[in-house]
Amino acid sequence: MNFVLLLAWIISIVDSTSLPCGPDGLCHCEHINVMDCSKTNELPLRNVCDYIDDSKGVKINILHLEQNGYKYIRTEDIKGCKSLKSLYLRGNEISYVEDVSLIKFDNLKTLDMSYNQLDVYNKRGTLAFKLPQSLIKLVLNGNLNVSDSAGVMYPNLSNLTNIEQLIFDGLKDTNFPVSYSEMQSLRSVSLSGLDGNCNMPYVSNDTFKHLTHIRTLNLSSCDIENVTAGVFEKLKNLEVLDLSHNMNLGFRKAMNITYSLQFTKIKSLNFSKLYPTFGLGTQLKLQDVCYLWNTNLTEIVLNDNRIQLVERNALILTPSTLKILRVEGNTFTFGQYLFQLGCFAHLEECYGNFQNHARDPYLYMEEPKIDESEFVSTNLNCPYTAPDVLINISKKKRVCPYFKDNNINMNKTLPTSPPEMKRLEFSNCGMQYNVTSVLVNPTPYKMEYLDGSGNIFYSWIGPFGPFPNVKYLNLSRNYCTHIGLKFFDSFRNVENLQIQENFLGLILSDKYYGPGIFEKLSKVKVLNLSSNIISYLHPAAFSNMVHLTTLDLSVNNIESLAIDVGSLNNLIHLNLKFNFIHSVPSYLREKLELNSKRLNKSFTIDLSNNTLSVSCNEKEFLEWMVKHRMNMLNFDHYTFYNMSGQRVDAERFVKDVIKLYMDCGSYSMIIVACSIGISIFLSVVIGGVVYRNRWNLRYLMRMTKIKHFGYIRLHQYFNEPERFMYDAFISYANEDVRLILDVMIPKLEGQGLKLCLHDKDFLPGNNIADNILQAIGNSRKTVAVISQQFLKSNWCLFEFNMARMESIYSRGGNSCLIIVILEDVPTRNMSDEMLDWMRTNTYIEYTQEANGELLFWDNFLQVLNE
């Protein structure tokens, strides 16, 4: 029994590891039945086959002999390889194969003789050597002599009764002979120029008519310029057609192709790169998709065609069977077609990544220069483009409006979405938007996967959607600085949330936003917040994520982790690498252990590239880390320092930690008590001073930062009068925005005043506090519109106090702060600084009473113009 187990273990190792084998150990065996003798410096073919024939107990079924410089194949050389099932001879120099050398390979299923010098395509239409009837796949591409290819024919292979797949070169002005109609097992033919030679500028109705049994036809990169209307009409079983990389074709000339596909069983159509990379944007017209309506297509690929617009009502004719749409690498812009996306009645997956993607300019030199004039190679009149037919089809679809003209009432007509959509990808498209409230119509109840990563969605306000059943949401790499409290209300069932590589550090630490951003995401299992410039997290940031198992906070500026994990009963994977962490809090360590025990799964934590030092202060944590070092991912590669500050490896670190109990001495409690007492005393004293002068300090710190790291105004050097960008910076609470936008701004701008507003003039990506100081410094006056909501906003109070400090320190004693009292505000709700300012400076009260309002505006404009 032990011998059997040992033998099984040895076989499993041999089967999973590449080991030397073959003659003189020059080959490699990744599996016990696969031998690779490629690129072995002309290792004699006979030696290889003799080795296979002599192998005892190990049966080689698959043999690779690519790029060995073989020039011929003789019967005597390969007789030992007769048991092979697959033989790969690609990239040799074989020009001669002995007539019957392969005929007795009764088990051979796959034969690859591509890129040799064989006389495969000749005017006789025959092969100079016989092939075994057992073949299922035959690869002969790359054997065409392009300079002498006129009048050559495809070889007669009618004796291969079991052949299913052929890979040939594509011959110019050559039809497949009638013998191919007898090959009833033939399912796939590839003539692709992407891996071989293909030059078929004109394809007629006779070119493929004898391939009656095939289901897959690959004509990619065949230099096709034109086709006749019935080109695929005889291929009744055709299911997959690849016409990609035919840059002379274009959509207009492809109309004949779509016409002939009506008579097939087509399911997948690849129309990628029918245009060169560079040029004007293309338009997908009604006539281009007309005949597709009468097919059962389930997948269409339109990648890299510079598609910019889709003609009105064209989407109505997309087949109802369509489930997968690939439109990557185009240049879509806003158009009427966006209101007809619901015409994709049963579309489940859409891939639109890399829109407006920058291209390698060298492609311009490599690609052909095409005449892209609107040339239509057919006189076919598609019956489905008639208005009455389009209207009838649109009515049969759930949300597929028909538009008579280009006049659309944007207030009454909403963009539609495919009602059956499950997966949508639009990553790396360079889209730059502030994601405000957007209603998706109809509600995509089946949507499960949404990827909008790699764009510039710099602010997520929402609500956006809703997307009630999305499980995977990726909004990473979007330069986002702000998340509205209602944004994730539309994604309550998300389980995997990827929002790494944004700028969310400030908003996640905010005491108002921090606890509420993820409040509705109770079902999230995986949360990625890496690379978000996070230095501090609000303790309640993840409190409602009761199903969270994996939390990634890597590549941030976190020094200490103070999050509430009381409700995180499923958290077992924590990634903290590339931070400034010295220790992990005890409550978090205990939580990981408890969760691991209850779930019967090992917890993991990654502290790579943090600063971990041997220290008495962190004794408890260091001992815990050493105890659980098997749970520390990449522990042997951590950065460790001993008590002297010298860098040590993991082994030395473990030994130093074990010695900590003796090294730390017995005065720890006294030292701790004294330290605590002194710290409390100093904290009280310093805290009182800092609190009393808190606004002065904040202002001076910010101004110091701007002075040293920002710019210096020119008037300070030349003693010139200061010039301001704005007449006034308006500070107001978001809840009062209607009064500001509808009344105050029109009135002031009507007087020729230039105003600064945080909604439109703050620079995206800048720190909010810096934006506020720049706005105050660049404005002649700052107007604080005081209301109940103003007093509740931390940012509004910050703006008031910074304007107050500006008046005191930077305007030579001239006040730049104007207070407008919007409503009755109890003085008990005002800060001491605000009350003190109002006692020594005048303010204006807003009223809507007719006479009082006239007086208000007279006074207000007079103060603003001083």
How would you describe this protein?
With 866 residues, this protein is of the alpha/beta class. Among the domains are: 1-118, Alpha-Beta Horseshoe (Leucine-rich repeat, LRR (right-handed beta-alpha superhelix)); 667-708, no CATH class; 711-864, Toll/interleukin-1 receptor homology (TIR) domain (Rossmann fold). 25% of the residues lie in helices and 15% in strands. It contains 23 helices and 42 strands. The protein has a 23-stranded mixed β-sheet. A 5-stranded parallel β-sheet has the order 39-38-40-41-42. A 3-stranded parallel β-sheet has the order 23-26-29, with no helix packed on it. Strand 36 (640-641) and strand 37 form a beta hairpin. Helix 15 packs across helix 21 (794-809). The longest helix is centred in the C-terminal third of the chain and has 25 residues, at 668-692. The radius of gyration is 37 Å and the shape is flat. The protein starts with a helix and ends with a helix. The model is unreliable at 1-16 and 708-720 (pLDDT under 50).
